[in-house]
Amino acid sequence: MILGINIDHIATLRNARSEGYPNLLDLALIAVDAGANQITAHLREDRRHIKDADITSLKANLPVPLNMEMALTEEMVTIALKTKPYAVCLVPEKRNEITTEGGLDLITNAKRLKVIIPKLQNAGIKVSLFIDSIKEQLDAAYELKCNSIEINTGAYANASGNNIELEITKIQKIAQNAKLYGLGVHAGHGLNFKNIPPIAKIPEITEFNIGHFLVSYALFVGFKNSVSEMCKIITSYKS
User: What is the DSSP code string of 60-123?
Assistant: First the structure.
């Protein structure tokens, strides 16, 4: 089991005053001390939270892998090739969105992905694709020869009533089929202590990337305790 802690919103708090604190690297190291297996950071085109210097600093100083989320742009590919994080997760990106809305459409973006994915892989960077629980998108991921998929759990996190079970079933099927394809299976978006158990029970999912909830909960209990509690919950279903 790999738990990646997304530290974007620590940077959001830092940028609110541009005073240099809270220090991103210090808190990333606290997350690692609490049990995080990797650090995830999304370098957006508008630099609303993570900055270029953050990616450089994290890559140079982290004792665990850096997972860089990024859009399908030449600028981001160039930065990734220069920085060489352990992995990148390719995500859709809109300037006016509050957070990532939906998975990446691999079919529409296939032509660009066929160029970008091998370019990153040839540099020794593992490539994950952030997708919705749709069979056609998974089939496209397989054809594109990525290393793994990250299932967008946003629809599940926002579901209510009978739709919750429907979303869980969709995620289970995509995870099972991805495993049959030989792809790594990750999950993330909107996960918290309450809704993660059914997802953590899915054996094919071996990596979770979680951020906003843990950063928010840390206001009450501290960042180390927040991350540690999530580690314990996930591990209880993976042991």
Answer: HH-SS-EEEEE-S-HHHHHHHHHH--SEEEE----TT-SS--S---TTTTHHHHHHHHHHHHHT
Token match 């946003």: residue? 154
- Per-residue confidence (pLDDT) for residue 10, from 0 to 100: 97
Active-site entry in 49, 69, 93, 204: 69
pLDDT value at residue 98 = 58
- Set 9, 49, 186, 189: catalytic member: 189
Handedness of CA 208, 135, 43, 101 (dihedral sign): negative
**CB-CB neighbours of 98 under 10 Å:** 7
Residue 15 CA to residue 9 CA, distance in Å, equals 9
Q: At what angle do helices 74-83 and 110-122 cross, to 10 degrees?
A: 10
- 136 noted as active-site residue: no
In the CATH scheme, what is the code of domain 2-238?
3.20.20.70
Q: Report the alpha-carbon distance of residue 31 to residue 148 in Å, rounded.
A: 24
Model pLDDT for residues 54-89, shown as the tens digit of each residue: 999 999 999 999 999 999 999 999 999 999 999 999
Report, as ranges of residue numbers, the positions in the chain whose pLDDT lies below 70: 94-101, 239
Cut 0.90: pTM above it: yes
Helices (H), the chain: 8-17, 24-33, 52-61, 74-83, 110-122, 135-143, 154-158, 162-180, 196-200, 212-221, 223-238
Look up 143 and say whether it is catalytic. no
Catalytic: 69? Answer: yes
